[in-house]
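User: We ran a pulldown and think these components assemble together. Before we commit to crystallization trials, I'd like a predicted model of the whole complex to look at. Sequences follow.
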Amino acid sequence: MEGDAPITTYRQVLSVAKLSAPLHPISVHFTVALLVTSVICDGMSFVFDVPSLSEAGWWTLVGCCLSTPLTLLTGLVSRMHLPMQESVARSFLRAHMALGPLVFGLLLVMTLWRAARWEEGQTVTLLYLVAVIGVSLVMTLQGYLGGELAYRYGADVKESYRELPGHPPQDQRPVLLSRPLARSERPEERSTS
Amino acid sequence: MTSAVFLELGPFQWLAIILAMGTGVLFFDALVGHYRHRFGYRLQYAPLAVGTLVILAAVLAAARPSVTWVITALEMCGWGAAVTGLVGFGYHWYYGIVKKPAGLAWFLHYLMYGAPLLFPLMLTSMGLLAVIVAAGLSGARMVFGAPMPTALCLFVAVVLLGSILQAGILHYRGAFNNPAMYLPLSIPVVTVAVALWVAESPSAANETVFAILLWSTLLIGFTGFGMHLRGIDRQMGGLYVALFNLMQGPPQGVPGIFVALAGVGLVAVYLL
Amino acid sequence: MMTGPTHHRESQSQDTSLFQSRYSHFNVLDKWATPDWDDQTRDAIRRRLEQVPTIRFFTEPERRTLEAVVEQILPQPDRTPTQKVPIVPWIDKKLFDDTRDGYRRDVLPPQQISWRMAIRGIDETAQALYGMAFSDLGSDPQRLVLERLQQGEPPGKTWQILPSHVFFSKVLTVAIVKIYYAHPMAWNEIGYHGPSSPRGYSRIWDGGIDPWDAQAEHGAHGDRS
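Assistant: Here's a predicted model for the assembly, 690 residues in total across the polymer chains.
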């Protein structure tokens, strides 16, 4: 973005065309949303026997599988531009990097499996649903790692306004007493030291 | 031989796509490795040139499977790759081991630290796969004296065994510093055995087992991609000295060979 | 962002025909702020450039003699005195701290003793041959004295105990050259890209040049493999 001024005009919004923002978070949403949608559509089609939902389940999975290479690629590009010293955060980053291709491999396997079902014109089996939910869990793990990187460690986040000024307050919070003060505790009766 | 169609592509079109991707990952590793050697031998350009031709021919064959000259081109590129790989093996053997100081007396050392001996033979195997694909696209049911499914199973068995050996020696060099380095020596070994079994006497039962093992091998390949990428970041300087660690570190392309071989086996099981 | 200390090289010289670097545009300190070097590397190089030790081991006459010897062995003719790579201070530091190499020729005494003896011997030889202290001699007589040392058995009482040819070729010249080529200015001359931390060496064979090394300018020997 141009400068650090808050966005107030459409022209500033258009400056995103300079691609100064990282693309990986954008691409990740496609992988996640399309897989989850596919699982939901196939699940509902399995339960309620709605053929069009089954079609939706297939095509969303195709979209997921086709968009994930872009997710991997933008992830690699983001990694190359990210200065991060050797730390806990970087080990999170390495775990995220190691798991990424495996998630893609699992998506590929599920897509091929789903394709076989689609070609036969049938809804999915319970076994398939269990497997694809399992793959979703692996993807959730990968997403969790990515989320830790962004939200705990601020990776690729330019400014991190996590604290309001004066927050948390430095002085102790006063205690609310739930019982009446004893005679010795009343301020006017306490001896000054 | 029942020849099923999957997503409107025939089995040999799928094999052509797998061939293109398998040759592609080999191309990448050959490029990095030979660049590291600064292309000191002119012939080090050969696998790159031949690999490019194979990839182009394979993509064309997948797109236009019934055009005769495409099939012929694929077959010729396949033989070219096979020969190039053999020459490369000779170079890796002679200049990479024999001619080095102490030569064969330090065989294990050079096997681990010299030019990887079996890599050129992977190019040869991709070339032979191209020949098989070309034969299949032109309607042949036998290739190299065996029925297509048998030939492909034997292909998977032999080449996967070679890949396991190459990965094994290099993971041994790495002292198996991560437990995941045992993966290529685990399930893929069983896959090789079952591939031979299926080639000899295919049945519905062992083909099912074979399929499960092949899917597992495919996932192990993808795991390898991720771990090798992690590996070059773990080295000193990480991805910030990317060119250096790319040349030093675990080869980024070869886990793809496990994926490709698993794909070949799966096509043989499901579509042939 | 850190910028490293820079040392510029004068192009005026007396005898540039004798030595020309093939890497005249290369400055290894351009790597200062890159990922090629880490904090430890930068610390070490900064110390080497800025914290030149004071003379604590040698006496003033010894220092003068040694400076004259170094000037003969490694003249640096194209640099003014303030620009020259300092060598004697680092020899002095090594001897003051008694940082030993871990090995020693059995015919030589330990380094603190042998260096003092050698400097005394050089002056004895100069006295015997020319009647003057070594540092007072002209350039040609100084070179002749050192040649006598190199050939062995020069005049001088010390050299009856200390074998001069051994000290000259195995200790004196080696120390001077090592210290010189530990300096970034010398690295620039030979196109060496500096300590391999974190980026290492890749083409580690005879004549191998890494992609990030300086590229020689004309008629360089390409690497043969």
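DSSP finds ten helices and two strands in chain B. That may be worth checking against your pulldown data before setting up trials.

User: Thanks, that helps.
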